[in-house]
Design a protein that fits this description.
Helix content is about 35%, strand content about 10%. By secondary structure, the protein is α+β, with helices and mostly antiparallel strands. It has one domain. Strands 1-2-3 form a three-stranded antiparallel beta sheet.
Length: about 160
Amino acid sequence: MLRLNIKNEPRWLDCGHGVRLQLKPATSSIMVAARRDPMVRELLPDTGSEDEVEAIPTEVQDALAVAMARAVARRCVIGWEGVGDEDGNPIPEPTPEGIDALIDVPGIFEVFQNRFLGPAMLLVTEKNGSAPSPSGTSAAVRTTARRARSNAKPAPKPKTRR
C-alpha cells in the first residue's frame, strides 16, 4: 500500500553516529531536478533513455548512485545535528559541500540510501507503485497456457436429507 504524506512536512532521519538530518520530502520535482544535476548527467550514457540501466557498467552504476544521493541530499537536507568540522566544531547549517562530504561517509550514505532515497526510487522502478502481480495476469508476462477446449461442467449438487 502506498502511504501518502499529505502534509509534506520535513522529518528527521537518524543516521547513526549522533547524526540526524532534517529532510524535505523527496517529491517528483526534486527527483527530476536531481536527475538533471550536472554530476548525475555526466555519468549517464547517451542512450536516449534513463531506463536502460542494465547497459551501464557496474562501476558507473555505483558512481551514479552516489551522485544521485548527493543531488537529492543537496535539495532535501534543510538542517542537521551532530555534524562538525575536522576540529570538532559543530557546523550549524548544511552547505552543499558539507552535504556532499557527509554523503561520502559510508554509514551515512547507506542510511540515506536505504531509508530515505530507496523508498522514493522504489516507486519509480515500480512505475507508479504498480508492480506486476506475481500470481495474476500482467501485461509484463507472456501467456504460456493454452485456452481450454470447452467450458467446464458445473459441479454436481449434493443430495441432502430433509
